[in-house]
Specification:
GO molecular function: flavin adenine dinucleotide binding; UDP-galactopyranose mutase activity
Largest sheet: 7 strands, mixed
Radius of gyration: 23 Å
Distance between the termini: 27 Å
CATH architecture of the domain at 7-40 and 210-262 and 333-385: 3-Layer(aba) Sandwich
Number of strands: 22
Number of helices: 13
CATH class of the domain at 7-40 and 210-262 and 333-385: Alpha Beta
Keywords: FAD, Flavoprotein, Isomerase
Strand order of the largest sheet: 8-7-18-19-20-17-21
Structural class: alpha+beta
Pfam family, one: GLF
Protein name: UDP-galactopyranose mutase
CATH superfamily of the domain at 7-40 and 210-262 and 333-385: NAD(P)-binding Rossmann-like Domain
Oligomer: single chain
Organism: Intestinimonas butyriciproducens
Helix content: 25-40%
Length: about 375
């Protein structure tokens, strides 16, 4: 075995790449990164399709954060294209901005009624507030309750049924209650102060982050073939490995599904290149009341790439993850039962003093890109302080 590595990182997405760079650069460790895929970047990987359009192969990724530390850190490895993400919902042929806001209100209701509803909303709540469906449904004014019902029926419930494979009765009432109505005309999907798209794409960002003399990246390597966990000892290529091991993959897979599979949702993507300059009004259109797919993404509008007379769109379908070859687990299915199952795997991991679980799959929870970058920075803070 090659014994010159001080740290082992499994996976090269946001979690693994940020951790590897921190351990190598700030910690002075010699880091081995094992990546199962043939490329770095995890699900944020982007590439040119056969028609020369820059696409996000595993679904659209839009960077936004309120964390200055994360923005400054990633800015070391990329410039940024100023991009403010806007999403509309196709509601029976009308494109309404989402989250639902005052502009949406005036598009959804007749002119006089919309003006009256706006006055009532601004009188009952403060301007620029995020008012939840629950708050509106608890209001004594029946017209404000009508707004809540409209948003629930036309923006939330059918989309959520497609996304999570649930009936309305199965959807967590707490989730429904948090669905917001924005009392502003700011139609950006995110309001974070730092937003943008990597100027040259996500893949060059990750390549630069991992380009360090103390980082070795091995692609096309399944860590299970190199690493074994037994009796509180992690072995790499058959020999004990005492340095930090940062694992970003599926935690149930790490332990050979000892307690069974953790449930996930996966996504199927249907890419199509069209001979038009532009296909839809915004980069993302959600289909909240129609179609089997949840949304269509038009990549040129995300990246700013100029390719006259041609555009690539992607339809996105959600379904249950089965673990079949080629499937990718995207979203943990959070429930008390599934959290308890994850807890059993987390307890197993706790039996290895140098094993650190990091990321959506390893921690069985949803993280935005900026949140997982911050998690990686914070984890490395703790390791390097020891």
């Amino acid at each position: 075995m090659d014994t010159h590595f001080d740290c082992l990182v499994i996976g090269s997405g946001y979690a693994g790449s940020v951790a590897a760079r921190e351990m190598a650069e700030r910690g002075g460790r010699r880091v081995l990164v094992l990546e199962r895929r043939g490329h770095v970047g995890g699900n944020a990987y982007d590439c040119l399709d056969e028609h020369g359009i820059l696409i996000h192969k595993y679904g659209p990724h839009i960077f936004h954060t309120s964390e200055r530390r994360v923005f400054d850190y990633l800015s070391r490895f990329t410039g940024w294209r100023d991009y403010q993400h806007r999403v509309v919902a196709n509601v029976h042929g009308r494109f309404l901005p989402v989250p639902f806001n005052l502009t949406s209100l005036h598009m959804a209701f007749p002119k006089e009624k919309a003006a009256r509803l706006e006055d009532k909303l601004l009188s009952a709540y403060s301007a620029n507030a995020r008012v939840t469906i629950l708050s509106l449904r608890e209001n004594t004014d029946p017209e404000l309750r009508e707004v809540a019902d409209y948003v629930y029926e036309n923006v939330f419930v059918h989309y959520t049924m497609k996304q999570w494979g649930q009936t309305p009765e199965e959807i967590d009432p707490a989730t429904t209650a948090r669905v917001p109505v924005l009392l502003s005309r700011d139609d950006r999907y995110f309001q974070d102060p730092y937003q943008g798209m990597p100027l040259e794409g996500y893949t060059p960002l990750f390549q630069r982050m991992l380009d360090h003399p103390r980082i070795t990246v091995e692609l096309g390597v399944d860590a299970r073939e190199r690493m074994a966990l037994e009796d509180g000892v992690i072995r790499l290529d058959g020999e004990p490995f005492a340095g930090p091991v940062i694992y970003t993959g599926e935690v149930d897979e790490l332990f050979s599904f000892r307690f069974g599979h953790l449930p996930y949702r996966t996504l199927d993507f249907d890419f199509e290149t069209l001979e038009v300059d532009r296909f839809q009004p915004t980069a993302t259109v959600n289909y909240t009341v129609s179609e089997d797919y949840t949304r269509i993404t038009e990549y040129k509008q995300l990246t700013g790439q100029v390719v006259p007379g041609r555009t690539t769109i992607m339809k996105e379908y959600s379904r249950a993850y089965t673990g079949s070859p080629g499937e990718i687990p995207y979203y943990a299915v959070i429930s008390p039962e599934n959290n308890a199952l994850y807890g059993r795997y987390r307890d197993l991991a706790g039996g290895f003093s140098n094993l650190h679980l990091l990321g959506r799959l390893a921690e069985y929870k949803y993280y935005n890109m900026d949140a997982i970058a911050l998690r990686a920075l914070t984890l490395c803070d703790g390791i390097l302080e020891q």
